[in-house]
Amino acid sequence: MHSAEISEVAPRDGLQSIGPFVPTETKIALVRKLHAAGLRRMEIGSFVNPKAVPQMADTAAVLEAALALPGLEATVLAPNRRGFEMAKAAGAHRVGVFMSVTESHNKANVNRSRMDSFLDLSGIVSDARAAGMKVRFNLSCAFHCPFEGVVPEEEALDWVERVQALDQGIEISICDTTGNAAPDQVRRVFAHAIRSWPDAEGKPRFAFHGHDTYGMGVANCAAAWEAGCRVFDSAAGGLGGCPFAPGATGNVATEDVAWLMRRMGVATGVDWAKLLEAADFAAAIPGALPGGRMRAVPAARAA
Amino acid sequence: MHSAEISEVAPRDGLQSIGPFVPTETKIALVRKLHAAGLRRMEIGSFVNPKAVPQMADTAAVLEAALALPGLEATVLAPNRRGFEMAKAAGAHRVGVFMSVTESHNKANVNRSRMDSFLDLSGIVSDARAAGMKVRFNLSCAFHCPFEGVVPEEEALDWVERVQALDQGIEISICDTTGNAAPDQVRRVFAHAIRSWPDAEGKPRFAFHGHDTYGMGVANCAAAWEAGCRVFDSAAGGLGGCPFAPGATGNVATEDVAWLMRRMGVATGVDWAKLLEAADFAAAIPGALPGGRMRAVPAARAA
């Protein structure tokens, strides 16, 4: 049987942009429920300036609780060297770094050029690997950019090529940050990447990070899967919507991805009933902006 | 540029199962708004026993209004010979017939065996073609059945083979009635059908009818497109949800399919702003069970 790995991002990408501060114990309860649902990999938080992202101010405490859960691989995002050092000191299994494929989004997001980001992150990747940490390198806006529109596939693949050349043992996520990638584009980019840079060290080198903003999240996951991608980011309850676009869905929902995989005969290791429980819990967090659709379907509930 | 044809089904599949009777003038207004949005093909209603489906009792009046709209191809569903004769007499451009790929669903739906349905429908198809009408042959539950679960691909293709042999000039819709088809299954079935029975008479022979019940509607349309399907059923506003499963989405939303096609560089002929207007109108019909997600996305609204 085929299998796919879900990297659950509700605790980080799902929560980070919501207004009311989510109490640390709620975040920990969410992580525990996700773990109980069989999710064995999670983006726990971000060691970012708490003035910039107040919701992530308690990442150290949430990470500590996560590290106590058996078999859970904990990723923490680090925007810079300081964040990486904190992630390393705190014992995160994997550090996540990120830059954008488009110059304008990278400038808007981290106020520097792509090349400056890449050079800094190269040093962090190298140090993280030397320290025995796993690395996730996120390439944001790889398909569509809020400033530049559709991203040429060659531009995305150029950056994938640079990143993969750093170290064959790191995982590269080709991210649809805006949710506006098209399935044929996702298929082509992943097919090209996977053909060009095959798996090394027995692990998949590529991951897909999708959003469901325009209703294409599941279609894009299906396309990535069919092109050979085996690692998927998603958020239980489809958290991660934009607070300024009421009703706009966020990260592709873990329950939607799990259902898709289930129907395609792909094992994900999740316990379906417990995943829906976790999704319900996530969606009920005050301030949360849930997406996902499984809550409505009795047949799926009963499956 | 590639192009796809959308067959808009909100007036029939979108409305038929909702409780309150939708006034005839509302149905006609919906048809007009959909036509104004550039949709040139529509499933207007069904000549079915009004006691069985009271919502469709005014199909003749809605059809009359639809036939007055320039360039609109009007389809009417006919469950039997009586319905076909009514459709022909009323001047429908295309008659839609249907049977299920699974024995148990066909029995539950029309109280007879598949072979009995097929033989009857064969006669209707032949008479409709002799009368110069276009024909749509819908194969329901071609991927998944509420009673039998996942439908073997060979079973679906067996029925496609029988139907295509009737007449190369009819259009066959391979329908995901329950919304639980998986994209890889859709891709395989369409790829096989299109390879085995190529287009005849310069028109696509196959169509995909998808529901979004489990969030896979757009993914399945993308898979069908990639396999070569060029005709898609969808309902503005994602109407067609089940009244007994609150929040369960119905037909895949026309705005979602149109957005998918737009992002894949496929022309559909729709006017985006007017389509959203029609979707809003559809979703606001009292008793309607809307799905679709475009209403929430300002960027899509402004596109």
Give your account of this protein's structure:
Chains A, B: Residues 4-276 form the Pyruvate carboxyltransferase domain. Chains A, B: It holds the Pfam family HMGL-like. Chains A, B: Keywords: Lyase, Metal-binding. Chains A, B: GO terms for molecular function: lyase activity. Two copies of one chain form a homodimer. Chain A has 303 residues and is an alpha/beta fold. The first copy, chain A, has a single domain, classed as TIM Barrel, CATH 3.20.20. Helices cover 42% and strands 17% of the residues of chain A. In chain A, strands 2-11-10-9-6-5-4-3 form an eight-stranded parallel β-sheet. In chain A, α8 (183-196) links the parallel β9 (171-175) and β10 (206-209). In chain A, α7 runs parallel beside α8 and α8 (183-196) runs parallel beside α9. Chain A is globular, with a radius of gyration of 17 Å. At the A-B interface, α8, α9, α10 and α12 of A face α8, α9, α10 and α12 of B.
Quick summary:
Chains A, B: One of its GO terms (molecular function) is lyase activity. 2 copies of one chain form a homodimer. Chain A is of the alpha/beta class and 303 residues long.
